[in-house]
Structure to design on (302 residues):
């Protein structure tokens, strides 16, 4: 088959393109043009292949995502066919956006499954815009936990976290830091054997976690793993968004593997999340108590 150049092939690369008059739907998805015409936003996600291995005769895009007034349309390429998924906003219990250098994941935790969209972070601005649009489409209930906002600066919290929190506050001035676990080097038992063992093994670090709220959502910023080897780099970070009204359980418990740590566990009806913390945290116990009091408060008779 002769390779015939096309605008789609010429533009192909790691970039996510928003569907418009220039960047049109891929040929495999053309029958969804009527959806594109009324979408609030629709974008296409390229295949994870090098440009030199692509050609105009290939299916160059693996997925198309459409954002509408009441639902999200996820179109996945399966060989030479398309799998459709319609996700209503009321069925999305949590959203997690993770970045690690050029690798990005957007996970949607729904009533029945977790839908993960993988992308190159050169197009992180498109995904950030999409997440903001999805969140704006959800029906939020405002919850007053009665917690004061923490003051923060780069002298108090990690520089990356201060930068990410500043970005959130620029988008929504109501966003406030309410609890924070700083980065702490873990220490073993101080027996003679423990001291010798710690000298012979890799030391470990409990990484930072920040808890924020805007009155409608719990927003958690954290690294990919809570505990890592001291000299092992971790370039990832994630935002987890959960509507406060969707949180149905919260507790603290001993860490299952590290006796000096605890876990803050919280979740929706179908999904559970957790973060490690120690006694050096600021505000986690107060946050746990306030959130528990709100979740488990006696329900008023109708």
């Amino acid at each position: 088959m002769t390779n015939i150049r096309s605008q789609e092939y010429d533009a192909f690369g790691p970039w996510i393109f928003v569907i418009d008059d220039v960047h049109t739907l891929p040929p495999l998805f053309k029958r969804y043009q009527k959806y594109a015409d009324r979408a609030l936003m629709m974008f296409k996600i390229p295949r994870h292949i090098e440009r030199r291995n692509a050609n105009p005769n290939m299916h160059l895009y693996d997925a198309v995502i459409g954002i509408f007034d009441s639902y999200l349309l996820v179109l996945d390429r399966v060989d030479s066919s398309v799998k459709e998924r319609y996700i209503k906003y009321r069925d999305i219990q949590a959203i997690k956006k993770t970045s690690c250098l050029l690798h990005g994941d957007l996970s949607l935790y729904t009533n029945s499954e977790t839908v993960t969209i993988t992308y190159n972070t050169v197009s992180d601005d498109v995904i950030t815009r999409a997440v903001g649009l999805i969140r704006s489409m959800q029906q939020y209930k405002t919850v007053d936990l009665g917690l004061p906002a923490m003051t923060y600066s780069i002298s108090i919290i990690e520089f990356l976290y201060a930068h990410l929190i500043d970005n959130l506050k620029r988008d929504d001035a109501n966003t406030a830091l309410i609890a924070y676990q700083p980065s702490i080097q873990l220490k073993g038992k101080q027996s003679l054997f423990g001291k010798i063992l710690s000298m012979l093994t890799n030391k470990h670090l409990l990484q930072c976690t920040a808890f924020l709220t805007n009155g409608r959502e719990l927003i958690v910023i954290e690294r990919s793993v809570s505990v890592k080897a001291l000299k092992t780099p971790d370039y990832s970070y994630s935002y987890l968004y959960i509507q406060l009204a969707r949180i149905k359980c919260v507790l603290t418990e001993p860490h299952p593997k590290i006796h000096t740590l605890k876990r803050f566990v919280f979740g929706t009806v179908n999904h559970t999340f957790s973060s490690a913390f120690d006694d050096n945290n600021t505000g986690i116990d107060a946050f746990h108590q306030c959130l528990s009091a709100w979740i488990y408060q006696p329900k008023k008779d109708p």
User: Anything to note?
Assistant: The first strand starts at residue 17 and ends at 18. The chain is about 20% helix and 35% strand. The radius of gyration is 22 Å.
